[in-house]
Automatic annotation (TrEMBL):
NCBIfam families: exp_by_SipW_IV (TIGR04090). InterPro entries: BsaA (IPR024008). It comes from Candidatus Enterococcus moelleringii. This is Alternate signal-mediated exported protein.
Amino acid sequence: MSQKEKLRHLLQTFVKSKALFACFSLLLSLLLIVGSTYAWITSSDERVNQAKRNSRKLSAVIEEDFTQVFQWAPGTKKEKMIRVKNDGETPAIVRVSLKEFFVSFETDKTDNHVDGDGNGNLKVYATPSTTSVDMKKTSTWVVGNNYEVNANTYYKANYALLNKTYQYNGTRDAPLPAFELAFQTNKVFDKSNPPPNGASEYWYYEGGYFYYSEVMTPSQVTPNLLESVSLSPAYVNQYKCALYKLVPEMDAHDVTRSLISDWGISTTGYVYQMYDNKLY
Protein backbone atom coordinates (compact mmCIF):
# COMPACT_ATOMS: atom_id res chain seq x y z
CA MET A 1 0.00 0.00 0.00
CA SER A 2 1.40 3.35 -1.00
CA GLN A 3 1.88 6.26 1.42
CA LYS A 4 -0.98 8.17 -0.16
CA GLU A 5 -3.34 5.21 0.22
CA LYS A 6 -2.30 4.78 3.88
CA LEU A 7 -3.23 8.45 4.65
CA ARG A 8 -6.60 8.10 2.90
CA HIS A 9 -7.36 4.93 4.92
CA LEU A 10 -6.43 6.66 8.20
CA LEU A 11 -8.70 9.65 7.46
CA GLN A 12 -11.66 7.36 6.61
CA THR A 13 -11.15 5.45 9.87
CA PHE A 14 -11.02 8.73 11.86
CA VAL A 15 -14.20 10.10 10.30
CA LYS A 16 -16.10 6.83 10.89
CA SER A 17 -15.18 6.98 14.60
CA LYS A 18 -17.82 9.39 16.01
CA ALA A 19 -16.29 9.52 19.47
CA LEU A 20 -12.86 10.41 18.17
CA PHE A 21 -14.31 13.01 15.77
CA ALA A 22 -16.31 14.59 18.62
CA CYS A 23 -13.22 14.88 20.81
CA PHE A 24 -11.29 16.49 17.98
CA SER A 25 -14.10 19.00 17.34
CA LEU A 26 -14.28 19.90 21.03
CA LEU A 27 -10.53 20.40 21.21
CA LEU A 28 -10.60 22.59 18.13
CA SER A 29 -13.46 24.68 19.58
CA LEU A 30 -11.60 25.18 22.86
CA LEU A 31 -8.49 26.28 21.02
CA LEU A 32 -10.52 28.83 19.03
CA ILE A 33 -12.24 30.17 22.19
CA VAL A 34 -9.01 30.48 24.17
CA GLY A 35 -7.29 32.10 21.23
CA SER A 36 -10.00 34.74 20.72
CA THR A 37 -10.25 35.49 24.45
CA TYR A 38 -6.50 35.99 24.74
CA ALA A 39 -6.54 38.31 21.75
CA TRP A 40 -9.34 40.39 23.28
CA ILE A 41 -7.56 40.78 26.63
CA THR A 42 -4.32 41.79 24.95
CA SER A 43 -6.08 44.38 22.80
CA SER A 44 -7.94 45.80 25.79
CA ASP A 45 -4.76 46.15 27.82
CA GLU A 46 -3.05 48.00 24.98
CA ARG A 47 -5.85 50.54 24.72
CA VAL A 48 -5.97 51.20 28.47
CA ASN A 49 -2.22 51.60 28.84
CA GLN A 50 -1.37 53.41 25.64
CA ALA A 51 -1.11 56.84 27.38
CA LYS A 52 1.31 57.42 30.22
CA ARG A 53 0.24 59.37 33.28
CA ASN A 54 0.50 63.14 32.73
CA SER A 55 2.46 64.61 35.61
CA ARG A 56 3.28 67.94 33.95
CA LYS A 57 2.19 71.11 35.71
CA LEU A 58 -0.69 73.30 34.45
CA SER A 59 -0.17 76.89 35.55
CA ALA A 60 -0.75 80.46 34.36
CA VAL A 61 -0.35 83.85 36.02
CA ILE A 62 -1.61 87.39 35.54
CA GLU A 63 1.06 89.90 34.63
CA GLU A 64 0.22 93.52 35.37
CA ASP A 65 1.82 96.93 34.94
CA PHE A 66 0.15 99.33 37.35
CA THR A 67 1.06 101.95 39.92
CA GLN A 68 -1.50 102.20 42.70
CA VAL A 69 -3.47 105.43 42.73
CA PHE A 70 -4.19 106.74 46.21
CA GLN A 71 -5.99 109.90 45.16
CA TRP A 72 -7.99 109.97 41.95
CA ALA A 73 -9.02 113.29 40.43
CA PRO A 74 -11.61 113.71 37.66
CA GLY A 75 -9.83 113.48 34.32
CA THR A 76 -7.01 111.30 35.71
CA LYS A 77 -5.76 108.49 33.46
CA LYS A 78 -3.50 105.74 34.72
CA GLU A 79 -1.78 102.92 32.85
CA LYS A 80 -3.05 99.50 33.93
CA MET A 81 -1.87 96.76 31.60
CA ILE A 82 -3.22 93.27 32.17
CA ARG A 83 -2.11 90.11 30.34
CA VAL A 84 -1.62 86.41 31.12
CA LYS A 85 1.47 84.20 30.91
CA ASN A 86 1.54 80.40 30.74
CA ASP A 87 4.22 79.67 33.34
CA GLY A 88 3.43 75.96 33.45
CA GLU A 89 4.69 72.94 31.55
CA THR A 90 1.63 72.06 29.50
CA PRO A 91 -0.66 73.86 26.99
CA ALA A 92 -3.47 75.88 28.58
CA ILE A 93 -6.60 77.85 27.77
CA VAL A 94 -7.27 80.94 29.89
CA ARG A 95 -10.03 83.38 30.66
CA VAL A 96 -10.15 86.56 32.75
CA SER A 97 -12.91 88.34 34.65
CA LEU A 98 -12.66 91.83 36.12
CA LYS A 99 -14.10 92.56 39.57
CA GLU A 100 -14.89 96.11 40.71
CA PHE A 101 -14.99 97.35 44.31
CA PHE A 102 -16.13 100.81 45.43
CA VAL A 103 -16.87 102.55 48.71
CA SER A 104 -17.80 106.20 49.30
CA PHE A 105 -18.18 108.30 52.44
CA GLU A 106 -20.71 110.77 53.86
CA THR A 107 -20.50 114.36 52.64
CA ASP A 108 -21.11 117.39 54.85
CA LYS A 109 -24.40 119.10 53.97
CA THR A 110 -24.62 121.54 56.88
CA ASP A 111 -24.25 124.70 54.78
CA ASN A 112 -27.65 124.06 53.10
CA HIS A 113 -26.25 124.53 49.64
CA VAL A 114 -28.96 124.85 46.98
CA ASP A 115 -28.04 121.55 45.31
CA GLY A 116 -28.02 119.70 48.61
CA ASP A 117 -24.39 118.66 48.31
CA GLY A 118 -23.12 120.95 51.06
CA ASN A 119 -19.62 122.34 50.88
CA GLY A 120 -18.23 119.23 49.21
CA ASN A 121 -16.16 118.19 52.20
CA LEU A 122 -16.59 114.83 53.85
CA LYS A 123 -18.37 114.62 57.18
CA VAL A 124 -15.85 114.15 59.96
CA TYR A 125 -16.30 111.90 62.99
CA ALA A 126 -14.04 112.14 66.01
CA THR A 127 -14.76 108.64 67.27
CA PRO A 128 -14.17 105.57 65.13
CA SER A 129 -16.55 102.64 64.71
CA THR A 130 -15.57 99.17 65.91
CA THR A 131 -14.49 98.18 62.38
CA SER A 132 -12.29 100.30 60.15
CA VAL A 133 -12.07 100.51 56.39
CA ASP A 134 -8.73 99.12 55.25
CA MET A 135 -7.74 100.36 51.82
CA LYS A 136 -6.09 97.03 50.97
CA LYS A 137 -8.86 94.76 52.29
CA THR A 138 -12.11 95.10 50.35
CA SER A 139 -13.86 92.86 52.91
CA THR A 140 -13.82 95.91 55.22
CA TRP A 141 -15.48 98.20 52.65
CA VAL A 142 -18.82 98.06 54.48
CA VAL A 143 -21.41 100.78 55.01
CA GLY A 144 -21.06 102.13 58.55
CA ASN A 145 -17.36 101.37 58.88
CA ASN A 146 -15.03 104.32 59.44
CA TYR A 147 -11.98 105.28 57.43
CA GLU A 148 -9.18 106.73 59.55
CA VAL A 149 -7.58 109.92 58.25
CA ASN A 150 -5.70 110.64 61.45
CA ALA A 151 -6.12 110.04 65.19
CA ASN A 152 -9.11 112.40 65.51
CA THR A 153 -10.55 112.35 62.00
CA TYR A 154 -12.69 109.56 60.57
CA TYR A 155 -14.98 109.29 57.57
CA LYS A 156 -18.00 106.99 57.60
CA ALA A 157 -18.79 104.73 54.65
CA ASN A 158 -22.28 105.34 53.28
CA TYR A 159 -22.30 103.42 49.99
CA ALA A 160 -20.48 100.29 48.82
CA LEU A 161 -20.32 98.11 45.72
CA LEU A 162 -18.36 94.91 46.24
CA ASN A 163 -17.15 92.22 43.87
CA LYS A 164 -19.11 93.51 40.88
CA THR A 165 -18.24 91.61 37.70
CA TYR A 166 -17.37 94.09 34.98
CA GLN A 167 -19.90 93.95 32.16
CA TYR A 168 -18.18 94.71 28.88
CA ASN A 169 -20.43 97.06 26.89
CA GLY A 170 -23.06 96.42 29.56
CA THR A 171 -24.73 98.18 32.48
CA ARG A 172 -22.70 99.05 35.60
CA ASP A 173 -24.04 100.43 38.87
CA ALA A 174 -23.39 104.15 39.49
CA PRO A 175 -20.81 105.56 39.84
CA LEU A 176 -18.75 102.72 38.29
CA PRO A 177 -19.27 104.00 34.71
CA ALA A 178 -17.18 107.03 35.71
CA PHE A 179 -14.19 104.67 35.88
CA GLU A 180 -13.48 104.16 32.21
CA LEU A 181 -11.56 101.06 31.16
CA ALA A 182 -9.55 101.24 27.93
CA PHE A 183 -9.06 97.83 26.33
CA GLN A 184 -6.44 97.03 23.72
CA THR A 185 -7.56 98.23 20.32
CA ASN A 186 -8.58 95.50 17.86
CA LYS A 187 -7.89 92.75 20.41
CA VAL A 188 -11.16 92.63 22.38
CA PHE A 189 -14.45 91.55 20.80
CA ASP A 190 -17.96 90.52 21.76
CA LYS A 191 -21.29 89.61 20.18
CA SER A 192 -21.93 93.18 19.03
CA ASN A 193 -18.43 93.46 17.55
CA PRO A 194 -17.26 89.99 16.44
CA PRO A 195 -13.66 89.39 15.37
CA PRO A 196 -12.95 89.56 11.63
CA ASN A 197 -12.36 86.41 9.61
CA GLY A 198 -8.87 85.06 10.14
CA ALA A 199 -8.32 86.93 13.40
CA SER A 200 -6.07 85.32 16.02
CA GLU A 201 -4.60 86.11 19.44
CA TYR A 202 -7.57 88.11 20.65
CA TRP A 203 -9.95 88.22 23.65
CA TYR A 204 -13.65 87.46 23.31
CA TYR A 205 -16.13 88.58 25.96
CA GLU A 206 -19.02 86.30 26.82
CA GLY A 207 -21.03 85.90 30.03
CA GLY A 208 -18.77 87.92 32.32
CA TYR A 209 -15.45 86.51 31.06
CA PHE A 210 -12.82 87.49 28.53
CA TYR A 211 -11.70 84.27 26.80
CA TYR A 212 -8.34 84.14 25.07
CA SER A 213 -8.75 82.74 21.57
CA GLU A 214 -5.64 80.54 21.42
CA VAL A 215 -4.23 77.51 23.19
CA MET A 216 -1.23 78.89 25.08
CA THR A 217 2.02 76.96 24.92
CA PRO A 218 4.43 77.07 27.89
CA SER A 219 6.06 80.50 28.35
CA GLN A 220 3.62 82.16 25.93
CA VAL A 221 2.17 85.56 26.90
CA THR A 222 -1.16 86.95 25.70
CA PRO A 223 -1.60 90.42 24.24
CA ASN A 224 -2.74 92.98 26.81
CA LEU A 225 -6.41 92.77 27.69
CA LEU A 226 -6.54 96.16 29.39
CA GLU A 227 -4.40 99.24 28.72
CA SER A 228 -5.51 101.93 31.17
CA VAL A 229 -8.14 103.21 33.61
CA SER A 230 -9.32 106.81 33.75
CA LEU A 231 -11.72 108.79 35.92
CA SER A 232 -14.27 110.74 33.92
CA PRO A 233 -14.30 114.55 34.29
CA ALA A 234 -18.05 114.15 34.92
CA TYR A 235 -17.39 112.27 38.16
CA VAL A 236 -19.76 113.78 40.73
CA ASN A 237 -18.64 115.53 43.90
CA GLN A 238 -20.70 113.33 46.22
CA TYR A 239 -18.20 110.52 45.68
CA LYS A 240 -15.20 112.62 46.65
CA CYS A 241 -12.34 110.63 48.28
CA ALA A 242 -14.06 107.31 47.57
CA LEU A 243 -12.00 104.14 47.20
CA TYR A 244 -12.00 102.09 43.99
CA LYS A 245 -10.28 98.84 43.12
CA LEU A 246 -10.24 96.79 39.92
CA VAL A 247 -9.20 93.16 40.46
CA PRO A 248 -8.48 90.79 37.53
CA GLU A 249 -9.25 87.11 38.17
CA MET A 250 -7.91 84.39 35.87
CA ASP A 251 -8.84 80.74 35.23
CA ALA A 252 -6.59 78.27 33.40
CA HIS A 253 -7.64 74.87 32.03
CA ASP A 254 -6.04 72.07 30.06
CA VAL A 255 -7.16 71.42 26.50
CA THR A 256 -9.51 68.51 27.25
CA ARG A 257 -13.22 68.74 26.36
CA SER A 258 -14.11 68.84 30.05
CA LEU A 259 -13.41 72.57 29.76
CA ILE A 260 -16.88 73.05 28.23
CA SER A 261 -18.73 71.68 31.28
CA ASP A 262 -16.20 72.89 33.86
CA TRP A 263 -16.57 76.49 32.69
CA GLY A 264 -20.26 76.24 31.84
CA ILE A 265 -19.72 77.30 28.24
CA SER A 266 -22.91 77.38 26.18
CA THR A 267 -22.76 75.08 23.16
CA THR A 268 -24.69 77.68 21.17
CA GLY A 269 -22.30 80.57 21.86
CA TYR A 270 -19.27 81.92 20.04
CA VAL A 271 -16.76 80.70 22.64
CA TYR A 272 -17.79 77.08 22.07
CA GLN A 273 -17.18 77.46 18.35
CA MET A 274 -13.87 79.19 19.05
CA TYR A 275 -12.56 76.27 21.13
CA ASP A 276 -14.39 73.29 19.59
CA ASN A 277 -11.68 72.10 17.22
CA LYS A 278 -8.88 72.88 19.71
CA LEU A 279 -10.02 70.43 22.39
CA TYR A 280 -9.56 66.69 22.57
